[in-house]
Write a structure and sequence with these properties.
Elements (H helix, E strand, L loop, with lengths): L1 H18 L1 H15 L7 H13 L4 H18 L4 H16 L20 E6 L6 H14 L4 E5 L5 H14 L3 E2 L7 H15 L3 E5 L7 H15 L9 E7 L4 H13 L4 E5 L9 H9 L3 E5 L7 E3 L2 H9 L2
Helix pairs in contact: 2-3, 3-4, 4-11, 5-12, 6-7, 8-9, 9-10, 10-11
């Protein structure tokens, strides 16, 4: 069992390394340019580093936070060599990615669940990989020995219900759906009622994939939450916002809109394998104080991973 676990962990790390390849290549090319010809970190290096972080989609606010800490370090130590810069940057970024609230969630797919059923409400705009993320989540939890049930509460598009039904069939998990036009809160209630009757461990509920006005979004998700709490008082346990990492700062804006409209407490960043904009994870995690919970690193079902800040930073800085 130990050997299998180690092998599985190595495979996951390889998937992470491969998925971050474009981000790493872009980041290190820019980082190398920022310190070329220098032996110590001076104002020029800091200016170049600031540009490197911003153009790597870390975001202005988070970049300035990193630069301020580096300036404080220089003031304290009087001298930082460019060879030390990597390790200092590494530590600062890891610190930005660690969110205390992440401890409330199961550490692995087979860790003890804090509730039964453990309810995940999934939000996000169309096209970010929301449906496939739900399918991969269902697969990972099922592979870990969990009884999983899906709820198709994105009832504004017929395709959304059909796609989720298709994925449910592929993964081999039950789904509750009432078709297009049904009341999303009614679907969520029926899903939870069915999950309780069947003893499901994990319930994953899809919601409408559109950013309409914030009041409409608040009302709709508030209604879903209210009806679910009639059956499971502390549901949902995760309000998971799915974002497409390849859209860079557009993902940041979506995070801003959704976190203002509802109580998002977890993030999933998809399509990391196809982009050099993986730095967006750092800015989003820092700016909105919401932990990144899952990352999508490819098309395979196993390419959805639980996010580990230290593993991410190790991979990012490994040359």
């Amino acid at each position: 069992m130990g050997l299998f676990s180690r092998k599985e962990k190595n495979e996951e790390r390889q998937t992470l390394d491969n998925g971050l390849a474009k981000t790493k290549e872009s980041f290190f090319q820019k980082l190398t340019k920022s310190i070329i010809g220098k032996t110590t970190v001076d104002d020029d290096v800091l200016d170049n580093l600031e540009e490197t972080l911003i153009t790597s989609d870390v975001g202005v606010e988070t970049t300035l936070k990193v630069i301020d800490k580096l300036q404080a370090r220089i003031k304290r130590d009087k001298y930082i060599s460019t060879t030390e810069l990597n390790s200092i940057l590494r530590a600062e970024i890891a610190q930005l990615l660690r969110r205390p609230t992440a401890d409330r969630f199961p550490a692995t797919f087979d860790s003890p669940l804090p509730a039964k059923p453990y309810v995940i409400l999934v939000v996000g705009v169309n096209g970010v990989g929301k449906t496939t993320t739900i399918a991969k989540l269902a697969y990972r939890y099922k592979e870990a020995g969990r009884q999983v049930m899906l709820g198709a509460a994105d009832t504004f598009r017929a395709a959304a219900v059909e796609q989720l039904q298709l994925w449910a069939d592929r993964v081999g998990v039950p789904i509750v759906q009432q078709g297009m036009g049904a009341d999303p809160a009614s679907v969520a209630y029926d899903t939870l009622q069915s999950a309780l009757a069947k003893g499901s461990d994990v319930v994953i509920i899809d919601t409408a994939g559109r950013l309409h006005n914030k009041i409409g979004l608040m009302n709709e998700l508030g209604k879903i939450r209210k009806v679910m709490q009639k059956l499971v008082p502390d549901a949902p346990h995760e309000v998971l916002l799915v974002l497409d990492a390849s859209t860079g700062q557009n993902a940041v804006e979506q995070a801003r809109q959704f976190t203002q409209a509802t109580d998002v407490n977890a993030l999933a960043l998809t399509k990391l394998d196809g982009t050099a904009k993986g730095g967006v994870i750092i800015g989003i995690s820092d700016q909105f104080n919401v932990p990144v919970r899952y990352i999508g690193l490819g098309e395979k079902m196993t390419d959805l991973q639980l996010f580990n800040p230290d593993e991410f930073v190790d991979s990012l800085f490994e040359q």
